[in-house]
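Re: beginner question about structure tokens

> Can someone show what the tokenized structure looks like for a real chain? I only ever see the sequence side.

Sure, here's an example I had lying around. Input first:
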Amino acid sequence: MRRILYVFLGVLLATSSLLADDKKSYVIGFYNLENLFDTYHDEGKNDYEYLPDGANQWTEVKYQKKLSNMATVIRAMKEDNHVWHAVLGVSEIENRHVLEDLVTQKEIAEANYQIVHYDGPDRRGVDVGLLYRPEVFSVLESKSIPFDFNSETINFSMTQEEKDYFRTRDILMVRGLLGGEMFAFFVAHLPSRIGGKGGDLRSRGGEIMYQESRRLMEAYPGIKIVAMGDMNDNPTDESMAVYMHGKEKIEEVGPEDFFSPFVSMLKDGYSSLFYQGGGNIYDIIVVNSHLVNAPKGSLSIRPLVKNRRKQYYGRIFHKPFMTEQEGQYAGQPLRTFSGGDFKCGYSDHYPTFILVSNK
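And the corresponding structure tokens:
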């Protein structure tokens, strides 16, 4: 039934291609690139399984195929939308080098993507980054925001020794001008669910993004904010619904809230990945009130699908070539490795995106 739903909704969501002729429309998205590692060891990082003599026998041939696959998906989104992403947040990247290799792939080189990236403290060596087209987005500032335990409301389950040892991805913030308007983008990859833990850590991640957003809104009145990432939580979980102040419906969004377009999609059976056998949307994008209640003629979030039954403000992008077609995992994302075998796939996540427009 879920596979039938995907096919139907895939056709329905193709209406996003209608944005092609609007020069004041911008696609903003996020994609977990699932372990985009090069074949060299980064000192101090536990990247050994992604070396030629490592567990995954990660050779230059496999690396180049992975790059081409990632670029193929980005290109496919462009073909659907008839326009390149203006901004694309990414996660599970090893370093700036892999992003430099990605943006020069023949499938996407013409987009002229530029890169914002900082080396982070994650012990495995994965970071987040931002790709942007300088023709439409100009960067004014960026910073890497470290995770901390300085919360007045969250009781952490870790001991002090565990806190001192803990390392996770920084949150990236990039502020600049999109279509001449002030925007800030946050890109996150919140702590893992491995072992059934980390809910308190993900809540703190949401709290950090929200606090940083509020500071920007005070410093730059009217600034439009998009927070995106692999949150390792659904949009209905505490990190997003409570600490990020995410609201399902536009009419619920107050001046200090964020609109969370993937809540309704999760409730309607959409998935961006599968975890422990169940479908989830961890690849979340939320926007602040200034992108919901924007002045007439300025950029605001727009529905990608609008019909008599439903209106969606987000899209989960998937095509048959990105999806397992048979076997135990039929209907799920076609990942790079499965059961230790190289599947020559894409990612265990589908990318997500939204549309902002002045019309």
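Each token stands for a local structural state, so reading them left to right follows the chain. The first strand starts at residue 25 and ends at 36.
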